[in-house]
Amino acid sequence: MKHAHTFHIPVMGIGFTIDTPLKVAQYGISSAISLVDDILLEKIRKMYCEKFEVPYKEITNKVHDFRAKRITSYLNLINDLVDKKFETIKYDNIKSYIDMLPNGASLSVEFKRLTEKGINMKVIKQWASKKLIKGSIDVNIMTKVDKDNYLQKEKLPTEFNDAHAALRGFANSKLKSSVILSAGMNPRLYAYMSKFEDFYPDENGNFKKKITLKVSDYRSALIQGKFLAKKGLWVSEYRIESGLNCGGHAFATEGYLLGPVLNEFKQKREALKQTIEAIYKQELINLGHSVPIASLGFEVSAQGGVGTQEEHDFLIKEYNLESVGWGTPFLLVPEATTVDNDTLDKLVKAKEEDLYLSNISPLGIPFHNLKNNTKDLEKERYIRKNRPGSSCPKKFVALNKEFKEEGICTASREYQHLKIKQLENENLSAKAFKKRYNQITEKSCTCVGLGTSVLIAYNLDTKTEGTGVSVCPGPNMAYYSKIMSLKNITDHIYGRDNMLSTNNRPNVFIKELHIYLEYLKNKLDETKATFTKKEEKYLVTFSKNLKEGIHYYKNMFKELKSSFKDIKEHVLLEFDKSEKTLELITLEIQNLRYKEPFSA
Predict the structure, then answer these.
(1) CA 306/CA 554 separation, integer angstroms
(2) How far is CA 233 from CA 162, 168, 211, 298, in A?
(3) Over the stretch 519-535, which tens digit does the pLDDT of each residue have?
(4) Taking Cα atoms as reference points, which of 326, 247, 336, 331 lies closest to residue 20?
(5) I want to staple 210 with a disulfide (CB 3.0 to 4.6 A). Which of 26, 169, 236, 450 is the partner?
(6) Coil, strand or helix at 381
(7) pLDDT (tens digit, 9 = 90+) per residue, 10-48?
(8) Which residues pair with 213 in a beta bridge?
């Protein structure tokens, strides 16, 4: 597929990119909408229907299959509104589109040639109508957020699970775009996807609906790509995300750094394609579907902590990428994302020490957090009142079945009350009790908090949700300290302007490595009291992969001729320092192995 831009805007939170395509797709910029919260989507659909005078009929929870229908209706509305805006750009404001394109883009060159010749506007508009490319309106589904649903205490069939219904909502929409599958593999969901015709190609290899897999390493891509191929499904894009140098949930894997992972994709890209294509085409034959005449391809993209044109261009050229994701900086771009003013102010002022990897997510996955966000402050107020936990109005992550078959969210008041009661019967020391109590109550209601900002920004009712906002920027936020226009940030990405607020921002590879080393240190500290064989194996493997990653980077930077000239010497010194730090951690792991007996 052709792209106007070499960057995309990844999904951010639940509400921050809920209407991003409506703001940027007409300029050829691709972005993604989270499908977690159908209640929020319905509220925003109503708002936009009123704003653009589109007939609106509420889809209540009394309507059969309401979750899927809300999602379909919202996506169809966004698609129609984007098309109208795109038509306006093509006929009335072509230059605003052209001015944001990458330097030297063929469209820019053609436009300049046309306008220099003094050709009339009718010809230019005809050219624009044929040549301009709309940004993709993609959707994101966290595959593991697939809660069972009930009707009058009777469990509904699997296809009414949250992720399944979200997928159906997308599949039934008029969008021609991609579903981005994140947060790991869900075999039942993948099998269900094969029921929708839009995911199958025509004889020319064109898809109405495409699949993008978000992965942190090559092995995961291979396993999931093969699994989907056996269901007759083709992955059109592998989106590689840094395990820890990103926003939102963080998946540290086993110490695999972004550069080495991208290099493995580069080396094995053709082998991956051939392996999966053979399985895929055979399955199409088995299913009685037409097999495309041409060989199928896929794109490879990356995201996580990129902050300069030099880093952006380097990733694309060095690893043969089609696109690089820029997430966190866009939270400071109201023309692209939707963030309430109070949260915007907090993000503008955020320093390195205000951004940290937390354990607040009810999913039990490390989660990037901003200190003193209003949702966490709300949580602390409840704890002080001796009423920890959220009322859990939406229950999207009510996945824990420890106390109820229907599932409870670990951030909910119900779960925390039951868990603390259980804790009180364990006769623990005051210190041990306090530690466990804090681990229970630190969970925050993110499925509400990550969507509230958009309601506040648009002055919509927050009676159900409350006013607490969770926000999950990546560590990169510390280096941007002003509100930006869409033109500002695109000029920054393409090197026509500089939006960084400091000259001391670390290189993307160095920053990621530092975060991984910190993560490893913390993991080691956590396991010292109860060191097991399993934990030893994880720490040893993690440190071994980090060591290999540092070795890869040192060799790569030594061989660079044109990229990173100004910082090359500094970066190599940082790798040396990090290598020494890793050696000390590795030594500590080895010493611990001999000092502590292993529990069974």
Answers:
(1) 19
(2) 21, 15, 8, 13
(3) 999 999 988 878 888 89
(4) 336
(5) 236
(6) helix
(7) 999 999 999 999 999 999 999 999 999 999 999 999 999
(8) 181, 238
